[in-house]
Each structure stands twice: as structure tokens, then as C-alpha cells.
Please model this.
Amino acid sequence: MSLIYRAIWQDNAIDDIRGFAADRFIHWVSEKWPVIVVPTTGKAHGEGQQNGERVDLEVHTIAGADAEVGITEAYRGDLIETRSGGTRWHTTLRSWEALEQDDTANRWFWVDVEVVGDIDIARLAVAAPKLVRELLAGGRSPQVDGDALVPDRTVMTGAADGELLAELISRPGRTLPIIVANDSPAARAKAAESDLYYPKIVEAVRQRTFGIATTYTVDNAAGDGLIDALGRSYGVWDGAIRVYLADVDPAEPGNAWRHRYYTSDRYTRSNFVAGQAIARLLGPVSAVRRPPSSYPAVKRLLEDVDTGGSFDELLQLADDQLREADTTITELREHVKQQDEFIDDLAIDLGAALEERALALREIEDLRSHVVSLQGQLTAPDKFHTVVEEEQPPATAVSVTEAVSLARAYLADRLVIPEEALHDLDDLDASPAAAAWGQTSWEGLLALHAYAVDRADGWDGGGFWEWCENSKNPRAWRATNKKLAMKESEFVNNSPRLRRTREFPIATEIAPSGRIYMEPHLKIATGGGNLAPRIYFHFDDKQCIIHVGFIGPHRLLPNTKT
Model:
């Protein structure tokens, strides 16, 4: 079972924490699944339907108290949803009041979401359950290690607000991630190009990360104040969104890469991409949050209530073993989180390297044009030569969605991309490798276009693979088995089911049915698992036009390995 979301917070201003938690849990379950009656304490079962699947429902509720160990009240509610498709979702709410030695009452809330079954965890993006939103909406003063989980003011304007936000971000001991979005006129204009409203994009981020982060917006003046206080390497500008994890030290600018930066080009074409990307980042971070020191006593209490207090020795032994396992799991999750950060850093480096390569290729093309012009002048020095400057497509793309948009804008004379060919681009754009995949996809589309242009100009040295190997065109794709396939495997070709997954849309003048079996494809990434992008295409040698039939994740194209 994978823990994908964990929110732990205090709200000492709530008086009846057990009653409040029970009321919110019962309301949430009853609203989500009216077919089941939630008991005050005990178990209940039911069956529902969602998205065409049968869902077996199980609810557990437990309450108790033990003043001898300082737990004056405690409550636990579990909702287990087992879907007929094979996945099992388990949402757990824990709440308790712990009386400290100085008679201070600390009141805690803890919500976990776990999932197990036939589901791609790497693709799954965290979303805060509505239960958390209701608990926070009804709370008084929810905090995480001294930071407000629901601040009174989240719209920061002016340099003074930027400096105030910088103090929150750089506060020693802060563990709550802080998300900052630059709500600028440029960002709103870019969102408006896709008929979107920038504040709604930010609100989608806030809704997905409720309980595990807090979200602020800054105008340009507040953004400048933030940069003045923290340094440019830690700043946010040009409509970007930044996620500040713990340990922001302005004196260590070399660590700024840890605090993920999402440019507006990457997410302003969709209401969901930013939220998905940031939720994927923060899910593993939330999962390693350590429980309060009072939790072991609560855990024993609720388990004792559940079992009637019997088998004390066995329960104590099991509890000790579970505590050791919890420690090991926490350490392993921390290790995984560090590895994820390392991979994300490599993805950033790869994106930067690809951008530098693209700019270098553009310079090569310009130099080749200049050489052709000089050769013409040497051949006929008495004639006046001019270099015709053609409008060049941009050298870079920051997402797969942008690569497609650029191709439609600049390459439409030789490249056709129907809307039906696009699949799950939001998922690709939300990946940590989105920038690298966007740039590589753009280079692939440029290569396909250049091939069609050369074929129209008379090049006849073979197919796309041979052109990539021999044409010496600077836009040629890498002709290796890891990056290009002109044929599918024999197994795929002989399987009617697998062949159907590769029948893609095409112009009716080529195939009257409007669909054709396509084998040639670009492998945008060999890593990235089932989310790695693929571009399938067909070359019409009569018109010298490339028809793109599929751009999307590899998981939609099953083969012998899937």
C-alpha cells in the first residue's frame, strides 16, 4: 500500500475536537456515499457505483480517552473504498487532545490517503480529499509547526508584503511548504490566450494541496520585494510559480534549485497542469512528515478500544514492531524523496542542455545560410547578393503542449497534427521532465518537417531513417533504436488487439476510413516509464507531407512489456 497524502496539523482553538472530527467525518462520508450509514462507533459496510465501477465500502469509527497517558479525547475514522477494477483507497482521519506536563492542551488532526492495486503510482497526482478542506474550513487556527495553514491573507501586494513573505519563507524551523505564484499582467495575458483566468489556475493549485502546503500570490512589486530579501536565485517572476520547501537560506544561493520553479509557459495553457505538477512534488514530501510525540499513546489507545483491550502483551509486542517498521519506512521515504529531488535536478539540467543545443543548431543554420550567400558572391562578384531572411520557428519549447502549438503555427505547410492525435498532454506537461520532453518533442517535429521539405526538394536517398543518417541536415533526428523505430515488433504486428491501438487518425484522401495503422515513431524519452512520450507519424510521399497520428504517453500503446 502506498501512502500518497499525509496532512498533520494543530488547531488548539477548537474546544470539542472529538465531536468536531466525528461530525466532519460523518458528513464527508455520508455526502460522498449516501448508501452507507456511518456509526458513532463501530463498523459499517455498503456498496456503491462510481464511474461505471462497483465500489465496496467499509467504514470504521473509534473513540476513546485515557487521562493516565495524557490523552483526554481521541477519535479515528476510516473509509475504505475497494473498486471492482482492482484498486483500494483508504482514507484515515485521526484527531486527539494531548495534555502536556504544563497542562497545555495540544489538539491534533491527521489525515492519510493510501492506495494499493492496479494503478500507476508514478502517474498519480495528489489531491487533498474534501474531508481535509472541510476540517480546515471549520477550524479556528490550523497551524503546522507555527506556520498558519490557512493564512488570513494570501494576496501579497507591494514590496513590503514581499519582504514579509520572505520572512515566512526563510524562517528557521519551517516545515510547511509555501507555494508562491506571480500574478502579473503578463501571466494573466498568457492565460487569457487559452481562455483561462490566472487566479483560477492558482486556486486549483491551492485546492489540490490543502493541508500539505499554503499558497500565496504576489504582484510584481511584491515579487521584487521577495527578490530583494532572498536574492534572485530564490525569487519568482514573469508569472512563474515556485514551491519553497524547508531550509531556505539566502546565504546559500547554490541550494535554490531544491525549491522547484515552474515557468508560466509550462502551465498557463491548462487549469490543471500546475496543480498536478506541484501535487506530484509535494505528495512524497507530505508522506515523510513525522507524527507528534503524543501519537504512540493515541495509537495504543485506539487499537485497545478496537480490540476491547484484550491481548495486551501481544498488542504491545505488535506495537513495538510497528513502531520500528514506521521508523524504517520513514527513513526509506526520506531516501526516496532525496532521490526524487536528484532526478528532478537532472531533468532541469537536461532541459537546459537541450535548450543550449537548440540554440546552437539555430546558429549553425544561420551560419550555413551566410556561407551560401558568400559562395554566391564569390561565384558572381559583380552581382548584388542579398540573404533572404525567412521567419524562423522558435528554437525552444518548454512543454509538449507548446511544441504542438509551435508546430501548428510554423510547420503546417508540411506537418499535419489533428486534434484527435493528442492524448493526455496535461499529464506530460505536469511531469518533472516536462521541459526536457517539450524541447525534445519540438526537435522531433522539426526533424519530421525538415525531412518532408527535403523530400519535396528532391532528396531521394531513402526513408526517414536514411535521411536522419545521411542527409547531414542539422535538424535530423538521431537514427538509433533507442530514439527511432520505423517498424513495430513482429508480436505487435501479429496481434489484432495491439494493432488496433496503433490505428490513428489521418486525412481521408490517404485512407477513406480516416484511420491508418502507423508503425514509424519517435521515442521522445527512453526513461520516464509508461509516461514517456511517443510521436507516431505517416509520410505521404505523393504530397510530401507528414501526418502525425499520435502524441502522448507510452502507456496508451501496450506491447509485450505492458
Notes: The chain has 16 helices and 20 strands. Residues 1-141 form a domain with the Alpha-D-Glucose-1,6-Bisphosphate; Chain A, domain 4 fold (CATH 3.30.530).
